[in-house]
Amino acid sequence: MNSRARWLVGIASTAGAFAAAGAGWDAFGDVGPVQYTLAGVTALASGALAYAQSTRGGPSGPGHPVPRELPRGITDFTGRGGELVELEGLLRRRGRSTGPLVAAIAGKGGLGKTTLAIRAAQRAADDYPDGQLFANLRGYDPEPAEPAGILAHFLRALGTDPREIPDALHDREQLLRTLTAGRRLLIVLDNANGPRQVRPLLPGAPDVAVIVTSRTPLSTIEGAHTIVLDLLEPDEAVELLGRVAGARRVADDPAAARRLVALCGHLPLAVRIAGARLAERPDVPLADLADRLADERDRLDQLEIGDLDVRSTFRLSHQGLPEEQQRAFRMLGLFPGADFTAWALAALMDVPLRAAEHHIDALVSAQLVDATGPDETGTVRYTFHDLIRALAREQSEPGAAAATQRLLGAYLTLAATAEDRFQPGEVRKAGGHPRHPADALPLDRLLHDPVSWFITEQHNIIACVRLAVAREFWDAAWELTHIGAPFFEMLATWDDWEEAVELSLGAARRSGNRWAEAITLFDTGALRRDLGRLDEALVAYEGARAGYTASGDEHGLAALLLLEGIIHRNLGDWERAAQLLGDGVVRLGAVGDRRLAAQSRRSLAVVRSGQGRHGEAIPLFQEALAEFQSLGDRRAEAYAWRNLAQAQLEYGEPAASAHSFSRSLEMTQRLRDQRGEARALQGLGRVSAAEGAAAAALRRFAQARQIAEAMHDHVLTRELDSDIASTNRS
User: Fold this and answer.
1) Residue 388 to residues 312, 331, 366, 467: CA-CA distances in angstroms?
2) Cβ proximity of 122 and 211 under 8 Å
3) Alpha-carbon distance 458 to 672, whole Å?
4) What is the mean pLDDT of residues 674-696?
5) Which end of the chain is more exposed for a tag (fewer CB within 10 A), N or C?
6) Predicted TM-score of the model (pTM)
């Protein structure tokens, strides 16, 4: 109906209403001018209403259409009890504000956002008797639905003649608000790509509720209540697997079921696909499918059946991003560890830190990356869902080799700076792997506490050593291990250190670099010594000596005197130990290594004390202590205080010994050196025992033993058991 026709309808309606009004007055007898005037006003109002109704293009009153567009719900809906209660609670609050209620369900693809939205809408349908509208906005498809097209669909569903739907988007928005005014409607907008796609579809009436699902948070929509979906709990994931594959089958092998859903990352879509694959093949054991999923390279291929495909679901989120953020996603697929930071992405992409932070924020918004909160250094860390990581790693990236080289260079720069601050005066041996520029890294913020940084990055450093070996960046492998040795030793992370030195030794040998092999054997000997495997340590040192001799490394040969002297000291060969350590003091001083020369002096003092020559040992300890203080090496200073304290105790100076042990305890606690802390507590316990304070001694020994057990330090644990037994006997 065109505007002329609508005008004629309005005139006719007005005339009819005027006549009807006049007839009504005639029924009461005499009709004067006033009555006719009132009749005219009534007629005009009635005609105007008729005209307005004709322009709305839809019927009014009890005869208007009641759309019922909600899709069919699934019968095996599992979990989400808390979210369902929260969503239903929101839907019952309809009409309590001046605008529509908007409930936004956010989360990564495959979490079941649509399933939850439909389940809640179906359960609340009776509260919305004027109908339920549904639209799939296809927000992450190559061609998302346009709001204008969705509005046209809604207007038709609400009774508008298709010929009367306005062309302009703004006019369609206004008409939707007009048609929904006074109606109790529920609208479900599924798979939105952001607020811009949603806003034009929101009516204005408070009696209308809208549920929106999106991978992108919709926090900028005014008044929206957001429910963020997470992964299923393990028990819920197993329950879903049973509902799809068969409850009896899952109950018969609960261990395989839990492993299977864990490999699915507890993602509902992945669990549903795995269940469907099992349902198709009742002869396939759950453990067999779990074994197939265990290979990350093949995992996404296994999680596909019919029209359900985990890879495609995640790929839509990736492909909807700008090119630079797609590149960021691919680059993060090169990262070898479980979690990462913005500075790591900056190194991978070779961009400023702020740009990397912007890219990661976009990936978080797209639900491709999860923020896990700040670490001990205050740096925000991020991680992938396992299946999204698999997608990132299968993407090809032309600059992968250069990016990997930069990442390893960044870790080398940070680790070397951390060691400089943790162990000042260290003469470090460096290889040829290029460092990432220090000014491109937030060194002061990250390394305010070097130990905290190493603790947060330790597993990534091991992963980088593996990556370096796999990509044949040989120098990076052994350098990271060599730089990390003092931290591995202090933290007593023997398994990580063992893996690192084995990988590095293989890398050095494969590269044919005898000098690098010698350095790695040097570190291997230190590890073997700390584990109490002294004979193996001496064998490693012999190999290191051959490599240092072949490469002409006088510093390395001098440092070996210190380590071999410690081995012979631990074996009780005091004379050989004293000879090696005395030579070490001289030769290390000659090559300009003040720190290791002081270490040799400290170790020589330990030998003198072991020989009962405490009067000679104490001045040597004090000289070493002064040198460590001059260098600013707090860890070595803490150890020197402990050694001095032991000599003072055995020399009959318990008060001085207690003071020195207390200084060592204070420093090791501040350094978070648990091994040093346990040794200092042991020393204080021995002071208390010597003074006859058995209860205080046992308390100190118990504290030290608890730390030693936590570190799996069996040597120290046995010593403390002996201390406890001796104290109880006395």
Assistant:
1) 11, 13, 12, 20
2) no
3) 15
4) 95
5) C
6) 0.80
